[in-house]
Design goal:
This protein has 333 residues and is α+β, with helices and mostly antiparallel strands. The chain is 21% helix and 31% strand. The chain has six helices and 14 strands. The N and C termini lie far apart (70 Å).
């Protein structure tokens, strides 16, 4: 492992003044590959100027630079590596600065870990400077992994080593995707574009108006919702995932009285105001106001109706109602 240079200054910058982040684009690589070093400086207060010093060890060769305003740095040799310096002398008011250094990994005969360090110096008055820094590590393998599948004599063949590295770099993204295939089946980790495909495995159709968070939560809750399908609890949970606060009123016989004068038979209803096999979904208007405009209200009602039609028992009817006082809306199912 490459030793880092000692900090130039003992006085550290308070966190309320600035913070620095420094990472390498890839953590494992081979000779000849390019590695991008990303440095981000976040300023929380206005400062009269700053200097960003990036130390790069031997084994990483700087080839290109990207900085705010296309500012070119000064490059100077340093014990065990190189120093790259950007200096901003004018008063700084911009909240964030991003710097990139593209490096190429130099040949090596042994595996090694190369450490880089980014340090920012802030003017603190009285010709004094305060500094803060952060390090990043790059692991370099001298030979490709595919050599272990060949006889040992090929390890001494430099041409074969470099030849196999080409295929390894081509196939690495595919291998990484295969190694992390299980994440594609996790609703919380799958890429957003894969959610409709994942939902199709569960028989779900995702509405384009639903947010990504709602889609992920719905897919994750699919098994639980299927167990409760056709029940008031299942419908309420489905609507809550979509951000709808609701309650369900089931309509049963009213004023049911059984006695000596009661008559039962075809066409006889038990009780008065009896509407069998129906229910009302009462929705709160707080999550999405019903007073914005008729178009938005009707679109919301259509989405709610589609959910109810999919989740209710086939023989039942329903009514949707918003509890919003004078703006109350109805929709018969």
């Amino acid at each position: 492992m490459t030793d880092l240079p000692q900090p130039l200054l003992d006085m550290s910058v308070p966190q309320e003044v600035c913070s620095i982040s420094h990472v390498a684009g890839i953590g494992h690589c081979y000779p000849g590959e390019e590695v991008t070093l990303y440095t981000r400086l976040q300023l929380h207060v206005s400062v009269p100027g700053f200097r960003l010093l990036l130390w790069i060890p031997d084994g990483l060769l700087p080839v290109r630079f990207e900085a705010p305003g296309r500012t070119l740095p000064s490059v100077a040799p340093s014990p065990g590596g190189r120093q790259i310096l950007w200096s901003i002398a004018t008063e700084v008011e911009q909240p964030a600065y991003e710097f990139e250094v593209i490096t190429r990994v130099e040949p090596t005969v042994v595996n090694c870990v190369l450490q880089t360090r980014a340090t920012v110096e802030i003017e603190s008055g009285d010709d004094r400077r305060a500094s803060v820094g952060e390090s990043a590590a790059v692991s370099v393998a001298a030979k490709g992994r595919y050599l272990k599948y060949l006889p040992a004599l090929y390890e001494r063949d430099d041409l074969m080593t470099r030849f196999l590295m080409l295929f390894e770099s081509f196939w690495r993204p595919i291998e990484q995707r295969i190694e992390h295939m299980h994440l594609y089946f996790d609703p919380q980790m799958a890429p957003a574009e894969a959610l409709p495909w994942l939902a199709s495995w569960l028989g779900l159709v995702l509405d384009e108006h639903w947010s990504e968070a709602q889609r992920r939560r719905l897919i994750a809750s699919a098994a639980s919702l299927y167990r409760k399908r056709g029940t008031p609890q299942g419908l309420l949970e489905y609507l809550s995932i979509l951000g709808e606060k609701a309650r369900i009123i089931e309509h049963r016989a009213n004023n049911l009285v059984l006695g000596a004068d009661s008559k039962l038979g075809q066409g006889i209803a038990l009780g008065t105001e009896n509407v069998p096999h129906t229910f009302t979904v009462v929705l709160s208007g707080t999550s999405q106001s019903t007073a914005v405009g008729d178009t938005q209200v009707e679109q919301r009602l259509r989405r709610i109706k589609a959910v109810i039609e999919a989740e209710k028992p086939a023989h039942t009817g329903y009514t949707v109602r918003f509890e919003t006082g004078p703006d109350m809306r109805h929709m018969e199912g």
